[in-house]
Specification:
heterodimer; A: about 100 residues; mainly beta; Alpha-Beta Plaits; two-stranded antiparallel ribbon; two-stranded antiparallel sheet; elongated; disordered N terminus; B: about 425 residues; alpha/beta; Rossmann fold; 2 domains; seven-stranded mixed β-sheet; 13 helices; globular; binds iron/sulfur cluster
Chain lengths: ~100, ~425
């Protein structure tokens, strides 16, 4: 989905309950609460030689910040990777190393 | 009333539980999820038969607990599938968290409850404490006091719940064993006529929420204190109160379509000139009609005011009753609310409306039939006699079954 296709999230507060839908819903939007990558203490780094391009890291990343196409090396978007390390622990080839961020 | 050939109904002898299963089948439900629990189990056994025999084209999802049952149905209902479950007692309590997910997601799931006592000590017999203890979770709650009413109510439930203005889940409640496991004739209209009555499922799911992988959304998000959390809560209450109109309209349409005569939120029996009235609900309220008949034969002006719904609560009907010149009312609960003003949840709620009348009305709360304890017509007459005593002597009875202002019918007092 392209950014332009997305319906806007409610940025403006509603004035009256009468304008509200039955439930609140959020549409996909890039980083609606900012660059969460700043929260990171450890950075996942993929070792391209060890990686067998299975895509497990892509499936398991809870933030959906790994892009992957079958047979290609996955790519991590560090703007939003929070450094949880799930990709590293799930990687069957131990191809992801968690490296401490510098000050 | 003579029925035309096309209006003829198929009369089958079946248990209350099978009436619930037939109600779900004839409502063309798309998804069923359930976990067995006595005395509900035969509802979902029958439904799994229907699915297995291809008599019902539905997905039957087996899970490991009632909590997962309702979680599964949250998912199915979010895709716009008509979803059904049935449970009882402990199972309903275990579901409690997900019940809020359903109502706060405004999903029109229908669930039947074969009510039973809560453990410990174990008890599987008629007692509405299960449903009464989750009465404030945003589900419409309707009691069905006959087998026919169980079947019919499920058809009406989907029509009410799926109305976009209502968009609330719906419980149809009846008593364990005395209704779930007894057999009576149930009249099943032709499916074509039922299909005409049922709402049409929207192709794209419910307007407010539609789970569709091609159009991803997040729902159930975090809403900050100064955002609209309070407002969404108000809207659930608002829709519940306003659903009364839709309930009335749906019952009227059903009565017309199928030649039934269901009341609205309440059913009044011999109330017009009555001075003493019993307010109750569920299967035992049906039996109260016999007690009223017997007392009427002896010249007593008594009546029965049966609550068919407790959510939404029939405020207007009760206030009208309070302003009708009534002198004494008894309010009976078949369930407990430990430590509340009366010990019974519904008697407390009924009494909370007394400030809407200037009339002086004496009220005697009562708790009966707990854990399936037998309540005979004579027992019911005994309660009416207590109410008549209040009217004639202007004082409350003081026998040992009257504890903390409430009659605990059948309390063992050693006499
Ligand atoms: S560290 Fe966590 S957030 Fe970052 S890419 Fe791995 S799984 Fe995703
Ligand atoms: S899980 Fe490991 S081996 Fe598989 S694609 Fe990701 S980095 Fe490569």
């Amino acid at each position: 989905m392209k950014t332009s296709d997305k319906q806007p999230a409610a940025q403006q507060p509603y004035k009256s309950w009468k304008e509200l839908p039955h439930v609140p819903v959020s549409y996909p939007q890039l980083g609606s609460i900012g660059a969460t990558g700043e929260w990171r203490t450890f950075k996942p780094e993929i070792n391209a030689e060890a990686c067998n391009k299975c895509g497990m890291c892509y499936l398991y990343c809870p933030d959906g910040v790994i892009s992957y196409k079958e047979g290609t090396l996955p790519e991590i978007d560090y703007m939003f990777c929070k450094g949880c390390g799930i990709c590293a622990s799930i990687c069957p080839k131990k191809a992801i190393e968690m490296v401490k961020e510098k000050e | 009333m003579m029925k035309t050939e096309q209006e003829k109904e198929n009369i089958l002898i079946m248990s209350g539980n099978y009436a619930a299963a037939w109600g779900a089948k004839c409502s063309n439900v798309n998804v069923i999820s359930a976990y067995p629990i006595t005395p509900q189990t035969t509802v979902v056994e029958k439904l799994s038969d229907f699915v297995d025999n291809k008599e019902l084209d539905a997905k039957y999802i087996r899970v490991e607990s009632e909590h997962s049952v309702m979680a599964a149905l949250v998912g199915s209902s979010m895709t716009g599938a008509r979803s059904f479950s049935a449970t009882s007692g402990q199972g309903l309590l275990y579901m409690a968290e997900m019940l809020h997910w359903v109502s706060s997601s405004r999903l029109p799931i229908v669930t039947t409850i074969a009510s039973r006592g809560i453990a410990p000590p174990w008890n599987i017999w008629a007692d509405y404490t299960d449903i009464l203890s989750i009465r404030d979770c945003g589900w419409i709650i309707q009691f069905a006091s006959t087998h026919q009413e169980i079947f019919d109510s499920i058809l009406m439930a989907y029509k009410i719940a799926e109305n976009p203005e209502v968009s609330l889940p719906y419980f149809v409640v009846y008593s364990g064993f005395s209704q779930s496991h007894t057999s009576k004739p149930v009249s099943i209209p032709e499916q074509q006529r039922i299909n005409k009555f049922l709402p049409i499922l929207p192709e794209d799911g419910w307007g407010h929420l539609n789970l569709n992988p091609d159009k991803p959304v997040t729902f159930g998000n975090l809403v900050m204190p100064e955002q609209e959390y309070l407002d969404f809560r108000f809207m659930i209450h608002d829709s519940m109160v306003k659903s009364k109109k839709n309930i009335h309209d749906t019952i009227n349409l059903f009565n017309q379509s199928f030649g039934r005569d269901y009341g609205g939120l309440v059913e009044k029996y011999m109330c017009d000139d009555a001075e003493v009235i019993l307010i109750s609900y569920g299967g035992l309220a049906e039996q109260s009609k016999d007690a009223v008949d017997k007392l009427r034969d002896q010249g007593n002006k008594v009546g029965l005011f049966k609550l068919r719904y407790i959510r939404p609560f029939p405020n207007e009907e009760l206030i009208e009753l309070f302003n009708s010149g009534i002198k004494v009312i008894g309010v009976v609960d078949q369930g407990t609310a430990f430590g509340n003003p009366t010990g019974g949840p519904i008697s407390t709620e009924v009494m909370s409306l007394l400030n809407h009348t200037k009339n002086r009305i004496d009220v005697l709360p009562c708790i009966w039939g707990i854990g399936g304890r037998n309540v005979s017509v004579d027992d019911q007459i005994g309660l009416f006699e207590k109410l008549l005593y209040i009217k004639n002597n202007n004082e409350y009875p003081t026998d040992e079954t009257c504890q903390h202002g409430t009659v605990w019918m059948g309390l063992k007092t050693g006499i």
